[in-house]
Design a protein that fits this description.
With 229 residues, this protein is of the alpha/beta class. It has one domain: Aldolase class I (TIM Barrel), CATH 3.20.20. It is built from 10 helices and 8 strands. An 8-stranded parallel beta barrel has the order 1-2-3-4-5-6-7-8, surrounded by 7 helices. Strand 6, helix 7 and strand 7 form a beta-alpha-beta unit.
């Protein structure tokens, strides 16, 4: 059985690949995500980030790698959609994912609370679970660290209203987090090339997540099309 410590050790200095497809995307299917996860494992990935209990369950049938689990759910009254409420945390915990990633931005959540109010409740309920804070700023990461998240990701830098336009991957943020917080820092967001991946590892991140550049052919094709327009 994986413990908190050995889960983090298994992904140390490793590439995690995000295997996700939303309902409106051509590859949306637990079967396809299972095949995608198997393919990236064969390529050398040592962890998977996946969305939804259905996809996670299918992926676990194909690979025995640590899984960062999320549930993306849109609520009309909130911009927070990555594991936004306790209900999604409950579902992920019951499925048995190794790491649960939660939006840890300063934005109000669907129930009107902010992360400082909800995470202590989550942490007390699931003390044995590894939690990753998906942040967009240094200040959010500081709050996440003080709340007791096990690791901090740069996942949402450039994706919140107040960080739009940030150059990605956000190496400036990575440097600050590495310097100031003694917890694993996971680089995620905007890593498009092997060279960028090497750059974030050279900054000392614990692990890095690459998604779109590997597992979303529609978006990859659009980038090539943009080059010839």
């Amino acid at each position: 059985m994986k413990t908190k410590e050995n889960v983090m050790e298994l992904i140390k200095d490793q590439l995690i690949v995000s295997c996700q497809a939303l309902p409106e995307e051509p590859l949306h299917s637990p079967f396809i995500m299972r095949k995608m996860a198997y393919a990236v494992m064969k390529g050398g990935a040592k962890g998977i980030r996946a969305n939804s209990v259905e996809d996670i369950r299918a992926i676990k049938e194909a690979v025995d790698l640590p899984i960062i689990g999320i549930i993306k759910k849109v609520y009309e009254e909130s911009d927070v959609f990555i594991t936004p409420t306790l209900a999604e945390v409950d579902d992920l915990y019951q499925e048995g994912v190794d790491i649960i990633a939660i939006d840890a931005t300063s934005r109000k959540r669907p129930d009107g609370n902010v992360i400082e109010q909800i995470f202590p409740v989550i942490k007390e309920k699931y003390a044995d679970q590894v939690f990753m804070a998906d942040c967009s700023t240094y200040e959010e990461a500081k709050v996440a660290y003080e709340l007791g998240f096990d690791c901090i990701g740069t996942t949402l830098s450039g994706y919140t209203d107040y960080t739009k336009g940030t150059s990605l991957p956000d190496t400036r943020l990575i440097k600050r987090l590495r310097a100031d917080f003694p917890v694993p820092i996971i680089a995620e967001g905007g890593i498009w090339t092997p060279e960028q991946l090497k750059t974030v590892f050279d900054l000392g991140v614990h692990a890095a997540v690459v998604g779109t550049a590997i597992t979303r052919p529609m978006n990859i094709t659009e980038r090539f099309m943009d080059a010839i327009k």
